[in-house]
Amino acid sequence: MIDPRLLRDDPDRVRAGQAKRGLSADVVDHALAADEQRRSSIAEYERLRAEQKQLGKQIPQAQGEEKQALLERTKTLSADVKKAEAAQGEAEQTYRELLMAIPNVAADEAPAGGEDDYAVLEEVGTPRDFAAEGFEPKDHVELGRILGAIDVERGAKVSGARFYYLTGVGADLELALVNMAMDQARGAGFTTMIPPALVKPRAMEGTGFLGQAADDVYRIEGDEMYLVGTSEVPLAAYHSDEILDGRSLPLRYAAFSPCFRKEAGSYGKDTRGIIRVHWFDKVEMFSYTTVEESEAEHQRLLGWEKEWLEKLELAYRVIDTAAGDLGLSAQRKFDCEAWIPTQGRYRELTSTSNCTDFQARRLDIRGRFEDGVKPLATLNGTLVAIPRTIVAILETHQQADGSVRVPAALQPYLQGRKILEPVVG
RNA sequence: GGAGGUGUCGCCUAGUGGCCUAUGGCGCCCGCCUGCUAAGCGGGUUGAGGGUUACCCCCUCUCGCGGGUUCAAAUCCCGCCACCUCCGCCA
User: Fold this and answer.
1) What does the sequence similarity comment in the record state about its family (predicted)?
2) Are residues A330 and A386 in the same domain?
3) Residue A45 falls within a domain, yes or no?
4) Residue A425 — pLDDT band, cuts 50, 70, 90?
5) What are phi and psi of A25, to 5 degrees?
6) Active site residue A388
7) In A59, A80, A253, A345, which residue has its Cα 20 to 30 A from A147's Cα atom?
8) CB A247 within 7 Å, strand B
9) Is strand B within 7 Å of residue A202 (CB)?
10) Does residue A138 sit in the same domain as residue A10?
């Protein structure tokens, strides 16, 4: 939810924000009108209610006919108050729905436009030149089969398309990556977390995943529950309805959790392998801080993501996502994209978003500071999304014989293995 | 899933229809006192919204949440949620 103050005092900024995302500004005008309506209905209700309270006080003291007259008047007043209250509630809800539909105002620095209008901030490392080395790289599905690491056929048999089993060294790889990521996060001062992956509507709604993103969310039939698409959801909702001590900030959490995505609208995209799947595990970083500090915190999250990719010895680039490709809650987003040899292009491995006070307003997360109580800022960033990271590692570090070199930093987490050897021909 | 109990301000707590504009304590903040500290004394201390706006001030809502009864609800009634105890089931 954007700051209602901003909408009222500077609606042009909000309109500009809509335009930058390629969205209509109509909702802004509708929300402004609803705000007017809401305020006048509040005034009307409060006027009647004050009168009712005033008269109510006189009744116990009144006697006889005077009392009868008062009772007569308050009886009709009582009905008016009820009506006014209902009208106010309705106006309030209309306003709130419109306000909630407005996405966070993109940062000035974020590029305008859609998916393809990102800005490349930097490229780190050099994509490996397999032609120069004299062999054709195998893709991760083939490598996964040779190593006995990934079983997509049985994943499809048991759970359907876009499911997989990690087996043997594949399973070992996930556990190694998770432990390594958690060690890095712990070392950076994060509190480690294992959050629930099944949440109530409030958490989903509060993080902005029930708007246009709702198609991508699994809902549990018969219960008002959702499977999270990222642990950002339970981590943001963790402190909902709380007022945190401003001196305790920033609060940083790193969570390991499964993630579930319907991938609606992605039919035909990335159908091969485990680049795009309905379920995967992830270690996610999450920060609570002040709006003023959020930009610096965003850079720190990006820094930890880069540190992570460098330890895995991957070639990657950082992009500044265009406004139209930001989630509802985000004001700015950086993606780290690793080079995938068999695709000949960079693919998103991690992503970090600054949601400023957008989610905090929806979830009622505030901080107490010397100058009062204010909504906090929330930020999230991927440390490791398992399947894509495995894809990048296998494809990047493969050798001509189908074996895969283990990056030095990962070796201690893989029982000291330096090479993953093929188990089938 | 069944039965019973509980839910009041950061924490504990008083409050059984109008004098609740919610009590008292702890903690916290400000001040006084004081070699230092502690103690003592005085004051302050839920949050949201509206009006007004330099500051102040006024009003409404907020006793787990939502309805209802009533001129009037923390208080009575109904539903929901959370926690506790017991039973059943279960990894």
Assistant:
1) Belongs to the class-II aminoacyl-tRNA synthetase family. Type-1 seryl-tRNA synthetase subfamily.
2) yes
3) yes
4) low
5) -90, 5
6) yes
7) A345
8) no
9) no
10) no
Q: Which of A363, A209, A179, A372 has its CA nearest to residue A283?
A: A179
Strand partners of residue A252:
A287
Instruction: Indicate if A366 belongs to the active site.
Output: no
* Amino acid symbol at A334: F
Residue A107 lies in a domain: no
Residue A168 confidence (pLDDT):
96
Task: Say yes or no: A97 and A119 in one domain.
Answer: no
Q: Is the CB of A37 under 7 A from strand B?
A: no
Query: Which range of residues forms the domain containing residue A128?
Result: 115-420
pLDDT at A223 over 80: no
Q: Is A248 a residue whose pLDDT tops 90?
A: no
Domain finish residue from A47, A78, A101: A101
Catalytic residue check, A122: no
Nucleotide nearest to A53 (CA to C1'): B72
A167-178 residues labelled b (16+ CB within 10 A) or e (exposed): bebbebbbebbb
Extract the tokens encoding A40.
């006048």
How far apart, in whole angstroms, are the C-alpha atoms of residue A315 and residue A132?
17
In chain A, how many domains are there?
A: 2
ipTM, two decimals: 0.85
Are both A166 and A25 inside the same structural domain? no
